[in-house]
Specification:
The protein is an alpha+beta fold. The chain has one domain (about 15-170): Peptide Deformylase (Alpha-Beta Complex). It contains three helices and seven strands. The protein has helices at about 30-45, 130-140, 155-170; strands spanning about 50, 60-65, 75-85, 90-95, 100-110, 110-115, 120-130. A hairpin with a 2-residue loop joins strand 4 (about 90-95) and strand 5 (about 100-110). The chain is globular and about 45 Å long. Nickel (II) ion binds next to helix 2.
Length: about 170
């Protein structure tokens, strides 16, 4: 089956607030979902995407933080942060579910993550820089958390109102 670009949900949406279910087994459907998610992410374009953003509340994320050079598509099933540095770093984050809105978020500068690969093998890797921010942002999605949840209530409300307006405009076509 050809990879398919799936529609990306825009905040606010109840499916973006859900605790996602672990994947019990790597099946052809899971592999197809991961391939579709990568296709959707590159098309957007973005550097990361989590399954709930395409309406599937399962613990799967994809990412590729290479800006210039060979692409490095990654698909992580049931990812968990098993170590985080005390050092923090601040990045201006955005999200494909919150288009055109950006804000500084402070997170651990480095994290070690364990996940299940699409080959069924458990993998571990330490991420730094943009990759570290991205993997934490995407794992947050699996717990129903968005980057705007790190902001103050006023800023968060302002962004949410903008998104509600955007959704109304899109619905009107
Ligand atoms: Ni996001």
């Amino acid at each position: 089956m050809a990879d398919m670009i799936r529609p990306i949900l825009i905040h606010p949406d109840p499916r973006l607030k859900k605790l996602c279910d672990p994947v019990a087994e790597i099946t052809p459907e899971i592999r197809q979902l991961a391939a579709d998610m990568l296709e959707t992410m590159y098309d957007a374009p973005g550097i990361g995407l989590a399954a709930p953003q395409v309406g599937v509340t399962k613990r799967i994320i994809v990412m590729d933080c290479i800006k210039d050079g060979e692409p490095e598509p990654m698909a992580l099933v049931n990812p968990e942060v098993i170590w985080a540095s005390e050092d923090l770093s601040t990045y201006e984050e955005g999200c494909l579910s919150i288009p055109d809105q950006y804000a500084d978020v402070k997170r651990p500068a480095e994290v070690k993550v364990r996940w299940l690969g699409l080959d069924g093998e458990v993998q571990e890797r330490q991420f730094a820089g943009l990759w570290a921010t991205c993997v934490q942002h995407e794992i947050d999605h699996l717990d129903g958390k968005l980057f705007i949840d790190y902001l103050g209530p006023l800023k968060r409300q302002m962004i949410t109102r903008k998104m509600e307006k955007l959704k109304r405009e899109r619905a009107r076509g």
